[in-house]
Amino acid sequence: xxxxxxxxxxKEKYGEIALHNESSKETSCCGTSSCCSGTDYSVFSESYExxxxxxxxxxxxxxxxxxxxxxxxxTGDTVVDLGSGAGNDCFVARAIVGDAGKVIGVxxxxxxxxxxxxxxxxxxxxxxxxxxGEIENMPVENNSTDxxxxxxxxxxxxxxxxxxxxxxxxLKPGGHLxxxxxxxxxxxxxxxxxxxxxxxxxxxGAIDIDIYLKMIDEAGLKNIKVQKEKAxxxxxxxxxxxxxxNELAEFRSExxxxxxxxxxxxxxx
Length: 269
What we know:
Elements: H1 3-19, E1 78-82, H2 88-97, E2 102-107, H3 110-123, E3 128-132, E4 145-151, H4 160-170, E5 171-185, H5 190-193, H6 196-200, H7 209-218, E6 222-232, H8 236-239, H9 245-253, E7 257-266
């Protein structure tokens, strides 16, 4: 698919998730069984329930980590959450920055922005803002951000190099990112790479971890550290929707894998 086609696919899928009745949400990274043909991505998600600021109405089970746990956010910081969804990570970040700080959520899906704004209005916060926009062209000012966070979103961005350059642009000198994402070690079978459902489910948009980290470095960010790494095991019954048994056996034997990572990097300019 071309870049714009991929963006449209992601918009449609996550728009469906935002509009879907939360009582029937059953999956992660793709939100609901109805919009993912029953595919179960719960292997990705982690529980937020014990975190300050957690709001169940904003938690659509779309993440693959908890970036705020590693983001070294301080009271008074300005935090930008990329692919902010219904606002889950923004509300957790707001509990850390306090009244003196500011949190900006950026998402390209209108129903998600609307849902996040509704959640924020219910909570009565005045220092959280949700902006409609794309990560490759963020509606955020240069050198304005202390911390960038993101949760299982950057892998869905077709032009990741541009996304990391945009992160560099909006960070203040001395600012940093802490993002959770899905990456690959080894090589995914071509059928998996081309599967649209898996793309919108956080797998096929993922790239090799070494390439991912190199993109961060080439964007100008330094002191890069993988803060957390967790293997993601996609069940055989899901993989067999895209591969035959022989192809699956070959994939498993090659040692290729899908991983959730949380990465830290700084803007030292």
